[in-house]
Amino acid sequence: MTPEQFLEFARPLPEPMFLVTSSGQILAANLSLTKILGLNRQIIQEKTLFEVFSDPADKIKQYLRACSSSREMVIGSLTLNNNGETYLYRCEGAVIRPWSPESPALILLRFKNRESASSRFTLLNKKIDELAKEIRQRQLAEEERAKLLVQEQKARAEAEKLNRLKDEFLSNVSHELRTPLNAILGWSQLLRTRETDEVTRNRALETIERNARSQAQLIDDLLDISRIITGKIRLNVQTIQLLSVIEAAIDTVRPAADAKSIRIQSVLDPAAGPVLGDHERLQQIVWNLLSNAIKFTPKHGRVQVYLQRINSHIEIVVTDTGQGISSEFLPYVFERFRQADISITRSFGGLGLGLAIVRQLVELHGGTVHAESPGPGQGATFTVKLPLMAVRATVIEPERVHPVVGGSVPFNCSSQLDQLKILIVDDDPDMRDLLIYTIEVCGAEVIAAASANEAILLLSESSPPFDILISDIGMPDQDGYALLRRVRRLEPQRGGKIPAIALTAYARTQDRTAALLAGFQSHIAKPVEPAELIAVIANLAGRIRDI
């Protein structure tokens, strides 16, 4: 309560009122009191209670101590100097919040002439109660406004930070996608426009494939983080032995390690025990940690992997001799879109999603992950803790590798498609050319359509009928779902029951589900491995060979 606040409330009230400190200094007086004292407000505010009242100083000090220390209302009487009249007063001490360090307590004194006090003191108390209540309400409102202001400032700072991170992330996405695209386009143009020897041609094709896989990996990471954020990622939970998971991940990253002469050392306890989890996602966790370690470890460095059981959980530890992590960045190492170096001169690429995906996948498995590093240039250690299964069960160990980085499957047309007639529907001419060449190499007759209407016309007029339909999903005018609905309304002899494959860049789990529910027998995500495509076609056509 400030003197200004006091005057705002006390000015219209008929009873004389003081606002004083616990030491007796007068801070403010209302108009009624200035009239009684016969002094103007400025002169009164330069005085103390000891100068205004004729009572002994000890008595006034006693009243002041009682007022400032008590949480109850204190009532007493004081006599004015100028007319010798005695007035009853009521004061509030601890109820009034201090307003400055110099005023440890503010005391509100309310006076009434003794002769008329007895009949109106109840009313006086009521008015003081209302005044104190209003003051307290205003103080609470001010405190609430101050809190809201702080919250608003924090929210604004966080929004600005997120906007900055978003801009940096979009810039990184553009850079990381354009870099491999440059190599793909550059080598493609050279192969198309110039004669090259076999060595150069093989080098160009390897570069194109490597950069295409790099782009596919970036897209996979973006899709994974999108699924995680929206809560749409699903785990195929089984009983898993982590030994095979880690060994498969090591095999996947070994070529990258060998290229930098990095030694991968593993200490894996085969009796560590099983966990419940998704084999592919667990392998993705280990692969991401190993790839991260190899990426930030210089040539001739070392990466170590440990698998061990600690009490009721299993630990996977990946440690390296790489560039390490600063103490400032360590708390943010698992946040998505965060990178220690975001400058255009940075030495390492990437989107800053790998470790964020690791943390989310580990937590989906009921585990935790944390990072440690002594500092820059001193390596880093990442520890994943997963709960051990309480009861042992039959362990399923499907052989799965990372879909993008696991290497391509050799394409040798092991499944022959002779005498099959296949209809391809895709609005992208380059994709149509690729599919036609890939499938015709294996002996099938291929006809391509660029739209749903063209496909329906070809199906209706074809003789003999087509054996397989391969359709894109995202197409102008009518998408693949609409096309298949039209196909299924055709008579059987005109292709109404033709087996159909959805070949699409819509690669989420819900996209696969939607394709199967729409009537497709199979769903293949782009980019597709030629060997996988031929195997799916052979399977639908009943051309399964003995292995």
TrEMBL record:
Domain PAS: 2-59
InterPro entries associated with the record: CheY-like_superfamily, HATPase_C_sf, HATPase_dom, His_kinase_dom, HisK_dim/P_dom, HisK_dim/P_sf, PAS, PAS-like_dom_sf
Phosphoprotein listed as a keyword: yes
Modified-residue entries (4-aspartylphosphate), positions: 472
Domain Response regulatory, first and last residues per copy: 421-541
Top-level taxon of origin: Bacteria
SMART domains the UniProt entry points to: HATPase_c, HisKA, PAS, REC
Domain Histidine kinase: from-to ranges: 172-390
UniProt-listed SUPFAM superfamilies: ATPase domain of HSP90 chaperone/DNA topoisomerase II/histidine kinase, CheY-like, Homodimeric domain of signal transducing histidine kinase, PYP-like sensor domain (PAS domain)
Catalytic activity line of the entry: ATP + protein L-histidine = ADP + protein N-phospho-L-histidine
Coiled coil segments of this chain: 114-172
EC number: 2.7.13.3
Swiss-Prot/TrEMBL GO biological process terms: regulation of DNA-templated transcription
Pfam family, one: PAS
GO molecular function, one term: phosphorelay sensor kinase activity
Alphabetic keyword roster: Coiled coil, Kinase, Phosphoprotein, Transferase, Two-component regulatory system
PANTHER family for this protein: HYBRID SIGNAL TRANSDUCTION HISTIDINE KINASE C, TWO-COMPONENT HISTIDINE KINASE
Protein family (similarity comment): In the N-terminal section; belongs to the phytochrome family.
Listed name of the protein: Circadian input-output histidine kinase CikA
Lineage: Bacteria, Bacillati, Cyanobacteriota, Cyanophyceae, Pleurocapsales
